[in-house]
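Session log. Operator J.P. requested a structure for one protein chain; no other inputs attached. Running the standard single-chain path with token output.
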Amino acid sequence: MTEGRDPSEHIPFFVPTRGFEGASATRAFRPNRGLPAAVAALALLAIGGLTAVHVVSALLGRPVRVVPYEQWARWASTTAWQDGRALAVAGALMLIGLVLILIAVVPGRGRMVALRTGDPDLVVGLPRRALARALRARANAVDGVRAAGARMRGWHADVSVRTDLRDTAALAERVRAAVGDELSRLAPAHGVSLRVRVRGPS
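Structure written below.
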């Protein structure tokens, strides 16, 4: 193994799944929402801790005035629901709730791309960087290509090549076909769109 390199960039992950389908393969490598969950947990912990401090201190006869509870309670009891400030607070709370729901429901972009295999119960995960390198190497192997680069943007592959040929349109078709064959060989469980750009001699 070469020192200084992340082994996860070269070694695919194998995850056994029963009843393999494209959707289940994608879910197998769906990233977790660690950061949003941690932020929400810390916020709830802070609110719960402040509430406990206020309740316990009030029971002991020495109420702590960390939060102006009486002022807030007075404002809430004297403000009508139709008041603009009340509607603004309710709208802000609703917006925060919707954002948390979307964070929980909408999957994020993972570092691994699920690939189909010959075994219906086996999913192979390939790092996005490794997939981009494979596409770049395939584009570099096309006759007429002087240099090539590839990047994965979500489920889109951007391939750019440089050439000394004047007929860039024909070369673009050859590169598209070659990279498309490489994608078909690797067989991502989720469809990957391909964009090829060719820069000729200046």
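Operator note: Helices lie at 22-28, 34-59, 69-78, 84-105, 128-140, 168-186.
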